[in-house]
Specification:
Distance between the termini: 31 Å
Order of helices and strands: HEEEHEHEEHEHEHEHH
Number of helices: 8
Largest sheet: 6 strands, parallel
Strand order of the largest sheet: 6-5-4-7-8-9
Mean pLDDT: 91
Structural class: alpha/beta
Oligomer: single chain
């Protein structure tokens, strides 16, 4: 068993209720809160599953949302800390060729030569929340940045770096809350759907995930 499974089991033997986040181990907790299940979300008492459980960082919640204004020129590209598939530079070049004003955010592990870029490349900027909020739309990898863009009302195009990120992107696509999926589909960005995608994205993530989880915890303590 893993260390987490040992802890869950030891607490349960003492009669202490356990609550887990995005847990899919062999030892089942009393309460399991899951954002997007890649398999059945099991719990002894109850599972809470859905995007309503997404926790948005305080730095993002503190921002005044700059809702979609009808413009589509400024785009931020951020494909996670490592850009696992090395798609950032190619995506930026594709969008620059279409006339977009591109800013590329390089994560701490991404391998990008700034000197070869004719557009701004920022390395793990401390003011990333403000940069994301000031753009017209974003290109993300389908992880935390994608959720933050949805919350802020930024239309997002997703370049999944993992199978799970692809599943999440396809799920969001069912709600018409995404501009597109996959670098092969970036050739002609459909600007006519930006406003609809922005509105639908905000409906999926309201930023109250942490307070919901806190309420569930309080219920366990009563």
């Amino acid at each position: 068993m893993s260390g987490i499974e040992d802890l869950i089991l030891s607490f349960q033997k003492k009669g202490i209720k356990t609550l887990t986040l995005d847990w899919f181990g062999d030892i089942i907790s009393d309460i399991n809160i899951v954002v997007f299940p890649h398999q059945e979300a099991k719990a002894l008492s109850k599972s809470y599953v859905g995007f309503e459980n997404i926790i948005i960082r305080d730095e993002i919640l503190a921002l005044t949302k700059m809702h979609f204004s009808g413009r589509s020129e400024k785009v931020v590209i951020s494909l996670g800390g490592g850009d696992l598939l090395g798609q950032s530079l190619k995506a930026a070049e594709i969008l620059v060729s279409q006339g977009f004003n591109v800013t590329l955010i390089k994560g701490p592990l991404a391998k990008i030569d700034k000197g070869k870029c004719n557009f701004p490349v920022l390395i793990n900027p401390s003011n990333f929340p403000e940069i994301l909020n000031s753009c017209d739309w974003a290109v993300t990898n389908g992880g935390g940045c994608f959720f933050e863009a949805l919350y802020l009302g930024k239309p997002a195009f997703v370049l999944p770096q993992t199978d799970m990120e692809l599943k999440i992107a396809n799920y969001v696509n069912q709600y018409n809350a995404i501009l597109g999926i996959g670098i092969e589909n970036m050739v002609n960005i459909n600007k006519t759907i930006f406003e609809t995608v922005s509105q639908n994205g905000m409906k999926l993530i309201d930023g109250n995930g942490l307070s919901r989880i806190a309420s569930i915890i309080k219920g366990l303590l009563c």
